[in-house]
Design a protein that fits this description.
The chain has 246 residues and is an alpha/beta fold. 37% of the residues lie in helices and 25% in strands. It has nine helices and ten strands. The strands form two sheets. The protein has a six-stranded mixed beta sheet, sandwiched between helices. The chain has a four-stranded antiparallel beta sheet with strand order 2-1-4-5. Strand 4 and strand 5 form a beta hairpin. The longest helix has 16 residues. It starts with a strand and ends with a helix.
Length: 246
């Protein structure tokens, strides 16, 4: 039972952006996919979500192949995008109801969980609000609530800390830890490595469309020759220098 991305190559309109990407996420594991802008993180996620067709390779989750059985695959995945995507004509309550129907959740249990999540992110008194009434940060909180409500086996989170206040960041980290304890799988892309270090067990560094290395924090530091006193963010400076020399 795991997510397996094997020899994945793909991109847009025949242009190859990612090349022979291999990545495994096991139950109870959070993997941080990191790299510079343009490295291929978003392209990898779009392939994983089935939004664009891969050129080569395979993606499977719990032995369900994305290309062979896309409906069953997608039922096991929840997604928090970097830019919130909400239906303008649906209230928060209706967004929650849509998630419950889509994932076939038990209504009583799901509503109990929904109220807990909404209270956590201070949305419990905004169930009748339309997206036009929400700030960007509040919209991001709605995406977090709906994703964790789905109770999916795999949670894909793209730049989750963007636009969130410190309390919401702490709440999100707690939810990720809770998911790990429930043997869920999490794939997260982020540039905010300070927060990511709290929950990520394995980092995969995507550079120029290929995973250059993967491992825990100490292993990544060793691979790139980072000193113990160096900020982990110094990694981006190294990746930038490598690109300039290519």
């Amino acid at each position: 039972m795991s997510l397996k991305i094997e020899h994945l190559s793909g991109g847009y309109s025949g242009v190859t952006v990612i090349k022979d990407v291999n990545l495994t996420i096991n139950p109870g594991q959070v993997v941080g996919l990191i790299g510079l802008n343009g490295a291929g993180k978003s392209t990898t996620i779009k392939h994983l979500l089935g939004l664009i067709r891969m050129q080569k390779g395979s993606i499977s989750l719990n032995d369900i192949n994305l290309m062979q059985n896309p409906s069953e695959f997608k039922k096991m995945v929840a997604y928090i995008p970097e830019t919130p995507i909400l239906y303008p004509e649906l209230t928060l309550k209706e967004h929650l109801e849509l998630v419950m129907l889509t994932y076939g959740l038990d209504q009583d249990k799901a509503w109990k969980r929904a109220h807990e999540l909404c209270k956590m992110f201070r949305l419990d008194n905004k169930l009748d609000w339309l997206p036009i009434n929400f700030s960007k940060g509040m919209k991001q909180k709605v995406m977090i609530v709906t994703a964790f409500l789905a109770n999916a086996d795999l949670l894909v989170i793209d730049e989750p800390f963007t636009g969130l206040d410190p309390l919401a960041v702490a709440n999100l980290i707690d939810l990720i830890k809770e998911s790990v304890a429930q043997n869920k799988m999490v794939l997260m892309t982020t540039h905010v490595l300070a927060e990511a270090q709290e929950v990520v067990q394995k980092f995969a560094v995507l550079n120029d469309g290929t995973i250059q290395t993967e491992g825990n924090l100490d292993e990544i530091r060793k691979f790139y020759g980072l000193k113990p006193t160096d900020s982990f963010d110094h990694l981006y400076q190294i990746l930038n220098q490598e690109q300039k020399h290519e």
